[in-house]
């Protein structure tokens, strides 16, 4: 059988039958590319929504947070590499259907308080079909959907998901394609995702992790802020501190003073700028 192309993210992997994509979450099966991680839950926790981080949407409430495995980026500073950089068979998981997960979210809501479901931990959009199907079930039970994503997905995927998402935190990890070349992503696609989510009325917040020597110049955060301002100056920006992780264990944490100074630079353009991990 000939190759099939995946149209989920800008990588557009071309896969022979049975092959796994770069994200390790999708595979070619029966002449099309499907989510191999569909319903495979590796992580499940009731988190404060502020932990996503989302600061201006139902503050003080909790949300059932789920993750699978796989990611289409290769950030050397990944904070969740045990699941994001794993593939099928490399990490324990439990298979859950969308309706089962939505029922669990409702049970947790009744027993402990819960807004709905947050799709997070690994990159949710490499398994966007599960997000879509679960989000519909969650909505039908009167609860909310929250997406935490790198935003590096094709327009068609965001077009399907955006109307189902009530709030999102999207990483805008750096100011340029040059930065995204370092982590294996597509800057324009991420910007498009942020704009599309905002335009459908989703509550959007953005996170930028400050990595020393990579995106810690004032001009870097000014360019990130300028893009967000062009969408809306009301969009909250989380400027967060890097700690050594994954393939950057030898690096130093971002100085706290740098994070605070860059947050002040962002405040020249944006009304709601927060600092994180400080
Ligand atoms: S989602 Fe995965 S399989 Fe599809 S193009 Fe992106 S990296 Fe490749």
Textual characterization of the structure:
- The chain has one domain (37-276): Aldolase class I (TIM Barrel).
- Helix content is 30%, strand content 22%.
- It has helices spanning 81-84, 98-112, 128-140, 155-161, 177-183, 187-199, 218-231, 256-266, and strands at residues 4-5, 14-15, 26-29, 32-35, 40-41, 43-48, 62-67, 94-95, 116-119, 144-149, 167-171, 203-210, 237-241, 273-276.
- The strands form four sheets. An eight-stranded mixed sheet has the order 6-7-9-10-11-12-13-14.
- Helix 2 (98-112) crosses helix 3 and helix 7 runs parallel beside helix 8 (256-266).
- The longest helix is centred in the middle third of the chain and has 15 residues, at 98-112.
- The model has no long low-confidence stretch (mean pLDDT 97).
- It binds iron/sulfur cluster.
- Iron/sulfur cluster binds next to loops.
- Iron/sulfur cluster is lined by residues 6, 8-9, 11-13, 21-23, 26, 72, 126.
């Amino acid at each position: 059988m000939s190759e099939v192309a995946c149209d989920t993210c800008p990588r557009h992997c071309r896969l022979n039958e049975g092959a796994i994509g770069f994200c390790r979450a999708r595979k070619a099966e029966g002449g099309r590319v499907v989510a191999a991680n569909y319903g495979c839950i590796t992580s499940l926790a009731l988190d404060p929504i502020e932990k996503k981080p989302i600061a201006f949407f139902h503050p003080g409430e909790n949300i059932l947070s789920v993750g699978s495995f796989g990611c289409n980026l290769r950030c050397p500073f990944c904070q969740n590499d045990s699941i994001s950089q794993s593939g099928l068979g490399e990490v324990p998981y439990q298979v859950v259907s969308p309706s089962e997960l939505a029922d669990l979210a409702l049970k947790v809501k009744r027993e402990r308080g819960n807004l709905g479901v947050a799709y997070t931990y690994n990159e949710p959009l490499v398994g966007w079909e599960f997000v879509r199907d679960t989000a519909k079930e969650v909505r039908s039970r009167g609860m909310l959907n929250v997406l935490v994503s790198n935003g590096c997905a094709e327009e068609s995927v965001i077009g399907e998901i955006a109307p189902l998402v009530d709030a999102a935190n999207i990483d805008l990890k750096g100011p340029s394609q040059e930065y995204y070349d370092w982590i294996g992503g597509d800057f324009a696609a991420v910007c498009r995702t942020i704009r599309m989510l905002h335009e459908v009325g989703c509550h959007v917040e953005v996170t930028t992790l400050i990595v020393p020597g990579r995106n810690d110049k004032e001009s870097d955060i000014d360019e990130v802020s300028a893009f967000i301002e062009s969408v809306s100056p009301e969009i909250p920006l989380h400027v967060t501190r890097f700690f050594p992780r994954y393939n950057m264990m030898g690096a130093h944490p971002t100085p706290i003073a740098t994070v605070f100074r860059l947050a002040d630079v962002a405040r020249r353009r944006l009304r709601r700028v927060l600092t994180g991990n400080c």
